[in-house]
User: Fold these one by one.
Assistant:
Number 1:
Amino acid sequence: MSKKDLALGVDIGGTTSEFGLCKADGTIVLEEEVLTTDFKSADELVKEIYKRIKNHGLLDRIHGIGVGAPNGNFYSGTIEFAPNLKWKGIIPLAKLFSEQFKIPAVLTNDANAAAIGEQIYGNAKGLNDFVTITLGTGLGSGVVANGKLVYGHDGFAGEYGHIRVVPNGRNCGCGRKGCLETYASATGITRSIKELDSKHKHYSKINEFKEPHAENVFQLADEGDEFCTEIIEFTAKILGDALADFACFSSPKAYVLFGGVSRSGKPFADKVKAYMEDAILNIYKNKIEIRISTLHDKNAAVLGAASLVWSEL
Amino acid sequence: MSKKDLALGVDIGGTTSEFGLCKADGTIVLEEEVLTTDFKSADELVKEIYKRIKNHGLLDRIHGIGVGAPNGNFYSGTIEFAPNLKWKGIIPLAKLFSEQFKIPAVLTNDANAAAIGEQIYGNAKGLNDFVTITLGTGLGSGVVANGKLVYGHDGFAGEYGHIRVVPNGRNCGCGRKGCLETYASATGITRSIKELDSKHKHYSKINEFKEPHAENVFQLADEGDEFCTEIIEFTAKILGDALADFACFSSPKAYVLFGGVSRSGKPFADKVKAYMEDAILNIYKNKIEIRISTLHDKNAAVLGAASLVWSEL
């Protein structure tokens, strides 16, 4: 029998899901991705990941499985009513993985997994109080206070993306209106292309894209496109304003931005920081950093999910 | 030398400050109050409390001092820029008490002190995840997650009263606009008398009061006064809406309402709960209780502040 030296980390996203085999020191042995939207059920996705790892001949080396997923519940091992996934209802994802691979599996919120990854391997090393903000298809958050992840009484703490920041604002997948993630996320930015009014809109180069993505908006803003610059400012203001208020929760030392939108880098983080400082309560002024994840290439969520295996199983 | 069997618990409020001598089992040996607004400086208030306890001949029995104060900082022992106190700037309150009494003193946010009191002696016994909401002159909050108070990196976590809930709303003492406490607090309710429009306003009995208080509004609402009923609904809706969103932070098992406004009792708590359920994210529905502090008579804040002595000194 071979050595069980690997943890399987799986990060389920609204658009893509990544998985990786990681050693305890953070070395990633294998990392691949699949399109989440390709799979009609979670079970099919689990089987596909199993097949791929089997093909690499690495099944025997896996000690356990850690999964990060939208609305993932640490206590029950289920995904429950995830607005950004096609799979509806309550899905026993930890059980599905565990049964398919015949090894233990543990599951948490994808943003919580990212927070653990960030704390152990990334840009939150040594911090006891910080919050990761995942800017992907939606907006996820992982809250660490007193050095520990805040799960809440039911495992669902840290849903900053569904705090309503605009009264009667944009319709959200959760059935409510004005949630932060309808503005500050990749999807939110593409909605802003349609929904923001501007005198610069009609001649913006973004109109040349049939299905523009958030990264196109960042790219064009860099090139001086005025409408795209407005969208970035609008997004940064809503996010900065929100993070200012959210400081009143846990007074974190840092917000660590993570995911697609944050890859646009320091200029966006600096804008968010400036708007946050404008709006923040006196006692928090000039204390809270906006950091960008250093784990993008290594994938904090996969590493974080994998690290659950070593800490929890 | 006599036995050091008592902790001095002090609860500094915007209007009144209470202090008590408590045994470790929660028995209160002495409890008195002073008007905070009577004292031009914190030092004078400390001296007054010292004088009173000296007059009772109980100085020798005090083991240590625990203080709960608005914007009180656990790490530094100071009050910093408290919007609801006349004393401005940074006040080394723990040091002032310690030097006056010649015994150790520890300080925290008044709402944090209430949360500890509630957890040890009150309506949050056995809960690892809950939030106390203090509805007094302002709105304070004490957040307990994973069984521990959330202090944040700088000691200033849990300022739910200064989360902005109405864009460009009421001016707040903190210099910002629309903070929750400008609506949901005793002061907020009296502001609503002036600032809320209603066709029932002109004939409301509240107009007969020269300086109406929140309790008058509750009393008249109970008697069927339509304008006062509207104010209560308005207040409950803003608070319930806010608590719905705040669930996204720590997903508490319960919010424990505490302080003057909550003394109006279960009907108000039920309204807040109903509005909270209307607005809350699916995954939290019908899970979070609104409880009312059971420690009003015994004073959770004084007990909580005193309990700091046994836990921290």
Number 2:
Amino acid sequence: MTKPVVILVRPQMGENIGAAARAMLNFGLDELRLVAPRDGWPSAQADAMSAGALDKMSAVQVFESVCDAIADCHYIAATTARLREMNKPVLTPSELAETYASRSGEGQKVALLFGAERSGLNNDEVAMAHSIVNIPANPDFSSLNLAQAVLLVGYEMFQAQCAIEPVAEVDPPAPQADFENFFTRLESELDKGGFFRTEELKPITLRNLRTMFLRGDFSQQEISTLHGIVTSLRSK
Amino acid sequence: MTKPVVILVRPQMGENIGAAARAMLNFGLDELRLVAPRDGWPSAQADAMSAGALDKMSAVQVFESVCDAIADCHYIAATTARLREMNKPVLTPSELAETYASRSGEGQKVALLFGAERSGLNNDEVAMAHSIVNIPANPDFSSLNLAQAVLLVGYEMFQAQCAIEPVAEVDPPAPQADFENFFTRLESELDKGGFFRTEELKPITLRNLRTMFLRGDFSQQEISTLHGIVTSLRSK
């Protein structure tokens, strides 16, 4: 799969470039391009904020215009806070990630454009994109900083990239026979302790108990712990 | 729908608390709790970094322990970078968001625990949670800062909030304080019965027990049934 390229357009603070680089590498993106960075490049502030990410990524490329920066790309998505009146598809980050997964699978190079800190992308730049990416957020407090926008888009790309398998497995529940065995013992011990007020209510109470204990999905190890608990409580 | 509570445990830098608050409000989360913040509370650094978020949120509450901070919550998820050897479900942020959407639809209060900047949550704190949340990231560069972890979890919550309607039917779990109360009693009764072989192993055994019993998601009624079981088993 071809990895997407992140393009920061007229970024101002070196710190923000560094934080964006860190967010990129967190999700395995390692190709960063800059269009006309205000304070030039390289940047000591960017290095410091990247927490080592810039050293591990491909060398950052600097371009004079968006047009140059996207020349070798096949699909361009423009991240914007405001929605524009342009007849382009507006995607959520997760929809973009799906688009990316299928296009990059075909060998296409996908570029993600992010505008300057305050001003964002201008209309001509947005017009160069195939789609607009809009991050759904609290309408009363929607301002995300540059690195956070990069983080969220990178996160969604990363989810799409690896078909996500569970990170760790919980122990499997014990075979039902082990559970029954414990449950039978519990019933008999509760009987001795006078737990069931009346014979009439006993079946209902037992059903409720069974429901409770079944919900635990106890493993074999845990069933034997439960036996230990009963033994311990019955002692003396 | 009940909104989730974000709990920062022993946060160090006020700046990080402020950045986390901003990330929360970006996705509509407005209840922040702090456990033992290193530099006290309120914090001028936090105010500055929150970009106005702290003023718009509910007043931040400060607690001395995780136990106190989660007392009124019904479901606790612990965000950790390292996976622990605990028999708890490990969720991605989007799986957590689904869980949250269905539980909050039933009126349950969901709490998200985030540990201190470097050290994270300790094992006893993780043990109090029903599930562990792990953010899948680049294994070679996985370190996210606190605000970014909050941002990603908040983002997924926000996506899920709109989508899923409540499942309902099952009794809601008891508030965490009821569970603690039962668990404390169980521990003391097990002590009397000689359940814990050595003082050394006791903390680990208790963590495992807690994990088992938390999985049951017991309602108030069921917690009182558990008390009844202990009483009955202890009787001669």
